[in-house]
């Protein structure tokens, strides 16, 4: 924010020194937009429309039919939508997904902020440690979850058994009440580095002088964090919360790698239910589910965007 | 692994989802009546695409195809073992010419939608045991009379047991439920795990103990026929419901589960194969697809199979079968004549019987040779006498996450909740497919 206002101050006097002839030419060229921009946007727009928007519209269309993905079909109006609202299994997947996304967002941001604060301090081997922390980000989520699956199912129970920690002696992935915590843990492990990068960028944008001033005023480190750091990086926090929450709502591959939606029905996410329609001959029904989920996430995104705009941050 | 479990396990990444969505989109956009498929012949050689559903027998079919091509120089056959391509092929209106599929609800759906051609006039159709052909036909026939699929191999699943452990403990193959329980108790007393459980892979619970107990205690064909006849009008207290029929059988599942090793909930199918081959349990509730894996893990393992007795009358004991591979020709193939020649060749007794012998399967032919593989001889009498059923899990539409429900029941032990969930799911699917 401070940098932009400085820029504005610098550019204003510069503009006033330009001779009047040049200004008028500049204004004319401003009205005539460079065609290069169109060349950049139009192909992407066409591809986007053809590969994303159009299939999505086709999906909406089929959600009004009884299409199984192949063969004959006919229009059945809104009955897919009506049936979804009567399906407790679908409702359960929504509840699970939202509880999971909320919890994970909170934990990811706390962990990432703590790591970022640590990595921003003047510690030994800072670069090396930063690299180590960012490794989870480059690993595929599916690979990570298969490795954790092994740890939870084999290594952890053996260790717990040896040290007499009975609650962990059976795999927590096999426990209907605890399995979702394992998913939260692995998701946090995988998602925290991305959030950490954003927080690090935020922390580096805070000028050192404010801390010097706070030191002189006698503020302790906790007070400094609460009254200086947090307000100054609030924009980054908002971005992290919004991007994270949106991403966690679509959670899929980590669950597939860890529990496959089990044990029982305990960890079925909405995305998994939607995808089951492709293999299950339930295409149109799950398409209706997808449309409903799209509308819900759209609503959440709009609310979040309004919040962002109030904070003066833009994505 | 049979076809249904594969279909349920085939949950890939989100990219696959996008691809599927894109395919559906593209199919709707491109002119539907389009070009159709053009006969794929060049220089008088017709190319057939053959999609088979078992990745583990690719080598066998490569050899079969080589022999076939030597006899039929005007036909070339390309093998594809990625069953996941079948539905996209249908959507693109370009399915393979010849298909093998495991027969269950999902394949029956294709039959009912008229995806496959009628094969009843093929000479080879007359060589197939009518009782085994019935396993296919019982799912419904297109136009009420067509033969859309000819069985190629029949898999019979029961209890796989270690002959060495049975002999060492002086236990003989049980023929009643009480004998079975007594055998388990005896193993337990000797410090041997009676049954190796792989509960983490929920399909092993579904087509293992759930199918065995249900199939042994109920008349599965009759139950599902009456249930389906009710359509969406089914309720939990109706005489045809799961709640009214499955209740008495379920405690036996929990009893089977209690004979499994500690920590079965964190073991999967691969763990189970390795552990059972090493002798960590006396019995294993798996089908013939596990046999080659067990031998691969321990080539000296001596295995046998028997059908799980669920009642105390030995005459009631039945074995779970499924038509593991059934041959079909897609209705709109431009290479019908070549495809029929290929299917006839595949159903030649020498091809069918060699396959059955190699893969611990049963031949669907009337003139089937006696089974000599000691791993499955224990099931042969049941199959020969027709004392078999198709697993209850195969009757469910794939959109019901049945295996998850079975797993939840084994963990939570709440049979009331389990059965009413099945009734609800069945009713909801019937409601939305009835319209």
Structural class of chain A: mainly alpha
Query: What's the CATH class label of chain A?
Result: Mainly Alpha
Strand fraction of chain A equals: under 5%
CATH superfamily of chain A: MetI-like
Describe this structure in words.
The complex is a heterodimer of chains A (about 325) and B (about 425). Chain A is mainly alpha-helical and about 325 residues long. Chain A has a single domain (about 80-310), classed as MetI-like (MetI-like fold, Orthogonal Bundle), CATH 1.10.3720. Chain A is about 75% helix and about 0% strand. Chain A is built from 14 helices and no strands. The longest helix of chain A is centred in the N-terminal third of the chain and has 33 residues, at about 90-120. Chain B is α/β, with parallel strands linked by helices and about 425 residues long. Chain B has two domains: about 5-155 and about 320-380, 3-Layer(aba) Sandwich (D-Maltodextrin-Binding Protein, domain 2), CATH 3.40.190.10; about 155-320 and about 395-435, Periplasmic binding protein-like II (D-Maltodextrin-Binding Protein, domain 2). Chain B has helices at about 5-10, 15-30, 60-70, 85-90, 105-110, 130-135, 165-170, 175-190, 200-215, 220-230, 240-245, 250-260, 270-275, 290-295, 335-345, 350-360, 375-385, 400-410, 415-435; strands at about 40, 45-50, 75-80, 100, 150-155, 160, 195, 285, 305, 320-330, 390. In chain B, strands 1, 2, 3, 4, 5, 10 and 11 form a seven-stranded mixed beta sheet that branches. Chains A and B meet through α3, α4, α7 and α13 of A and α2, α4, α5, α18 and α19 of B.
């Amino acid at each position: 924010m401070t940098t932009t206002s400085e820029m504005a101050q610098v550019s204003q006097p510069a503009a006033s020194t330009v001779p009047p002839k040049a200004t008028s030419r500049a204004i004319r060229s401003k009205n005539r937009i460079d065609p290069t921009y169109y060349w950049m946007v139009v192909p992407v727009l066409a591809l986007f429309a053809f590969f994303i928007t159009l299939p999505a519209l086709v999906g909406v269309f089929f959600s009004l039919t009884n299409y199984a993905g192949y063969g004959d079909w006919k229009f059945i109006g809104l009955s897919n939508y009506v049936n979804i609202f009567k399906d407790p299994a679908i409702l359960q997947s929504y509840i699970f997904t939202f509880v999971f996304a909320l919890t994970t967002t909170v934990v990811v941001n706390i962990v990432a902020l703590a790591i970022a604060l640590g990595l921003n301090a003047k510690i030994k081997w800072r670069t090396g440690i930063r690299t180590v922390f960012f490794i989870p980000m480059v690993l595929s989520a599916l690979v990570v979850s298969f490795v954790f699956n092994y740890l939870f199912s084999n290594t952890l129970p053996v260790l717990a058994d040896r040290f007499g920690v009975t609650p962990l002696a059976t795999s927590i992935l096999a426990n209907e009440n605890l399995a979702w915590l394992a998913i939260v843990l692995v998701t946090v492990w995988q998602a925290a580095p991305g959030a950490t990068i954003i927080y690090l960028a935020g922390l580096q944008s805070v000028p050192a002088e404010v801390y010097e001033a706070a030191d002189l005023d006698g503020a302790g480190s906790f007070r400094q964090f609460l009254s200086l750091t947090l307000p100054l990086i609030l924009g980054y926090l908002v971005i992290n919360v919004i991007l994270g929450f949106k991403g966690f709502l679509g959670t899929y591959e980590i669950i597939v790698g860890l529990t496959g939606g089990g044990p029982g029905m305990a960890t079925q996410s909405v995305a998994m239910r939607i995808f089951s329609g492709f293999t299950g001959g339930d295409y149109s029904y799950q398409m209706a589910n997808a449309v409903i989920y799209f509308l819900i996430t759209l609503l959440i995104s709009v609310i979040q965007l309004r919040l962002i705009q109030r904070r003066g941050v833009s994505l | 692994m049979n076809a249904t479990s594969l279909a349920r396990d085939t949950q890939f990444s989100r990219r696959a989802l996008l691809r599927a969505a894109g395919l559906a989109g593209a199919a709707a956009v491109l002119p539907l009546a389009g070009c159709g498929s053009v006969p794929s012949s060049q220089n008088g050689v017709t190319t057939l695409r053959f999609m088979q559903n078992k990745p583990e027998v690719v080598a066998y079919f490569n050899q079969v195809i080589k022999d076939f091509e030597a006899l039929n120089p005007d036909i070339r056959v390309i093998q594809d073992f990625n069953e996941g391509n079948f539905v996209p092929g249908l959507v693109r209106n370009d399915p393979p010419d010849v298909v093998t599929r495991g027969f269950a609800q999902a394949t029956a759906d294709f039959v009912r939608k008229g995806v496959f051609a009628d094969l009843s006039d093929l000479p080879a159709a007359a060589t197939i045991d009518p009782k085994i052909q019935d396993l296919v036909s019982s799912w419904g026939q297109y136009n009420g009379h067509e033969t859309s699929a000819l069985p190629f191999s029949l898999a019979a699943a029961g209890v796989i047991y270690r002959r060495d452990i049975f002999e060492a403990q002086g236990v003989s193959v049980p023929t009643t439920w009480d004998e079975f329980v007594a055998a388990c108790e005896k193993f337990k007393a000797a410090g041997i795990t009676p049954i190796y459980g792989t509960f983490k892979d929920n399909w092993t619970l579904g087509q293992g103990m759930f199918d065995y107990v249900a199939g042994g205690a109920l008349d599965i064909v009759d139950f599902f026929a009456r249930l389906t006849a009710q359509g969406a009008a089914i309720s939990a207290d109706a005489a045809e419901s799961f709640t009214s029929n499955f209740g008495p059988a379920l405690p036996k599942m929990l009893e089977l589960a209690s004979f499994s090793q500690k920590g079965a909930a964190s073991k999967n199918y691969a763990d189970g194969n390795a552990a059972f081959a090493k002798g960590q349990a006396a019995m294993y509730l798996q089908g013939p697809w596990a046999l080659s894996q067990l031998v691969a893990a321990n080539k000296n393992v001596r295995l046998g199979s028997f059908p799980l007795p669920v009642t105390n009358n030995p005459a009631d004991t039945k074995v779970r079968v499924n038509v593991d591979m059934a041959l079909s020709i897609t209705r709109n193939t431009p290479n019908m004549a070549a495809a029929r020649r290929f299917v006839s060749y595949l159903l030649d007794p020498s091809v069918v019987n060699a396959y059955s012998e190699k893969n611990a399967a049963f031949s669907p032919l009337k003139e089937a040779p006696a089974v000599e593989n000691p791993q499955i001889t224990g099931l042969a009498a049941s199959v020969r006498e027709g004392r078999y059923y198709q697993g209850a899990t195969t009757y469910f539409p794939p959109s019901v996450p049945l295996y998850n429900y079975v797993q939840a029941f084994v963990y939570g032990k709440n049979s009331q909740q389990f059965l009413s969930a099945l009734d609800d799911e069945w009713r909801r699917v019937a409601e939305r497919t009835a319209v």
